[in-house]
Amino acid sequence: EPEVTQTPSHQVTQMGQEVILRCVPISNHLYFYWYRQILGQKVEFLVSFYNNEISEKSEIFDDQFSVERPDGSNFTLKIRSTKLEDSAMYFCASSASLDRGVGNEQFFGPGTRLTVL
Amino acid sequence: AQSVSQHNHHVILSEAASLELGCNYSYGGTVNLFWYVQYPGQHLQLLLKYFSGDPLVKGIKGFEAEFIKSKFSFNLRKPSVQWSDTAEYFCAVNAHGNQFYFGTGTSLTVIP
C-alpha cells in the first residue's frame, strides 16, 4: 500500500540554525500539507500546497517557514532560523482530492521529531 | 474559529470492555469528519470517515462512529476492545478549505 514517507525521523539542531524536513507524498496525490504537534498538544495545521503554490496557511506559518516541491517527488518544509518553541513533531500529509463530496482524507507520514537546543 | 473537543484525555479499559470516545466540533455548516489512530511508534492512520449519507459509519478493526448533527458530535465506538487497540485516537474535522482541525487526542490503554 502506498504511503507517505518522511526524513529524517529525528532532527536535533541548535537555535538559530536552518532545518529542512523532507517528505515524499503518495505518488498520484496532488495536495500536500504540513502539520505539527508540540508535545502534549493537539496536531496543528501549518500549510497546504497545490500546483506549486501555497493554498492555505495558518498563523503559525510565518516568514520563518517556507515550503517547496523541488522535484516531482519531494515536498520540503524549511525553517529558516529555528527557535526553541519550534521543537515538535512535524507531520507531512497528502491527499488525492479536495472534493469534499467524494472524499478528501489526508494520508499522514510517520513524522519528524525536531528538537531545538 | 473552528474547534474540535475530545473530552476524554486518557481512558483505561480491560479487554472486552466497550469503548466510546467523545468528539464535538464547533462548525455549523457542512463538515467532513474523521477519526485517526496513532499506534505507539507509528504514524496517524485513518480509522473511518464521514462525508454524507448514513450517519453511522463503520471503519476498520471493528470501530464505528455516529454523526449526530444536532449535537455537533462524532463519537467513536467499539463494542469489545482488544489489547492491540492501545493507541492515541484523534478526531478531525474538515469544514472548509483543505485544512483539518484536530482534537487534542485520547490516549486509550487496554489492559489484558
Describe this structure in words.
The complex is a heterodimer of chains A (117) and B (112). With 117 residues, chain A is mainly beta. Chain A has one domain (5-97, 106-116): Immunoglobulins (Immunoglobulin-like). Chain A is built from no helices and eleven strands. Chain A has strands at residues 5-7, 10-13, 19-24, 31-37, 43-50, 53-57, 65-68, 75-79, 88-95, 107-108, 112-116. In chain A, strands 2, 4, 5, 6, 9, 10 and 11 form a seven-stranded mixed sheet that branches. Chain B has a single domain, classed as Immunoglobulin-like, CATH 2.60.40.10. Chain B is built from no helices and twelve strands. At the A-B interface, β4, β5 and β10 of A face β5, β6, β10 and β11 of B.
Present the secondary structure layout:
The complex is a heterodimer of chains A (117) and B (112).
Chain A: E1 5-7, E2 10-13, E3 19-24, E4 31-37, E5 43-50, E6 53-57, E7 65-68, E8 75-79, E9 88-95, E10 107-108, E11 112-116
Parallel strand pairs in A: 2-11
Antiparallel strand pairs in A: 1-3, 3-8, 4-5, 4-9, 5-6, 7-8, 9-10, 9-11
Chain B: E1 4-5, E2 10-14, E3 19-21, E4 24-25, E5 32-38, E6 45-50, E7 56-58, E8 64-68, E9 73-78, E10 87-94, E11 101-102, E12 106-111
Parallel strand pairs in B: 2-12
Antiparallel strand pairs in B: 1-4, 3-9, 5-6, 5-10, 7-8, 8-9, 10-11, 10-12
